From TrEMBL:
One of its GO terms (molecular function) is S-adenosylmethionine-dependent methyltransferase activity. This is Putative O-methyltransferase YrrM. GO terms for biological process: methylation. Keywords: Methyltransferase, S-adenosyl-L-methionine, Transferase.
């Protein structure tokens, strides 16, 4: 089977169950307008995040990696009226763009933006007792994925859902001799997940408009 059929099926599912409204479409367009990379989640994956948030009755969500706020919008729309999402972004320019997109979406009252390195902000969240979170979505730089996950566990509760994106890297995780730091980061993360006794987890292999990758989904054990 070719990548073309995967992309067509992906589009078919999106059209049926994850159609983008103007707010989401404009959020994606804003990346091109600002010259930022088009690395947001797909509509299907945005809808998956929304479904998982509703499934876990999420009221407090933590997101690592805001970019233009595309996934943030999907997640924030799943929150109840008094729900809140804290989203971390290392690039101030990305965060500023996301603020504009979130405002256009009418979700500013639900989104708390934090700018800086996640590895420095996460300990502060712990110190300030901002957890526990009901759902945590990790979609940031790949080398420290293991450390991000370890912090996520400290900010979680039994039953918290932790979702980590881009953990298959077009199958490059199979290359034991890779020199790609992103691949090495997710290899280390996947290996950690295998032996972690605090969660029940799996990895879902994904194909579609963004080709071949995978999403790790873990639930903190009760």
């Amino acid at each position: 089977m070719s990548g073309q059929i995967f992309a067509q099926v992906d589009q078919y599912i999106s059209n049926l169950l994850a159609p983008e409204d103007k707010v989401l479409q404009d959020t994606i367009k804003s990346l091109d307008e600002e010259g930022f990379p088009q690395i947001s989640v797909t509509p299907n994956h945005g809808k998956l995040l929304q479904v998982m948030a509703k499934l876990s009755n999420a009221k407090k969500i933590l997101e690592l990696g805001t970019l233009a706020g595309y996934s943030t919008i999907w997640l924030a729309r799943a929150l109840p009226e008094d729900g809140k999402i804290i989203t971390l972004e290392v690039e101030e320019r990305h965060s500023n763009l996301a603020r504009k997109n979130i405002e256009k979406a009418g979700l500013s009252d639900k989104v708390d933006f934090r700018v800086g390195k996640a590895i420095e902000i996460l300990p502060q969240l712990l110190e300030d007792k901002e957890g526990p979170f009901d759902l945590i979505f990790i979609d940031a730089d790949k080398p420290p994925y293991t450390e991000y996950f370890e912090y996520a566990l400290k900010l979680a509760r039994p039953g918290t859902v932790i979702i980590c994106d881009n953990v298959i890297r077009e199958g490059k995780v199979l290359d034991e001799n890779t020199t790609d730091e992103k691949v090495k980061g997710v290899q280390r993360f996947n290996k950690m997940l295998q032996s972690n006794q605090d969660v029940t987890a799996t990895i879902i292999q994904t194909v579609g408009v963004k080709e071949h990758d995978g999403i790790a989904i873990a639930v903190v054990n009760r």
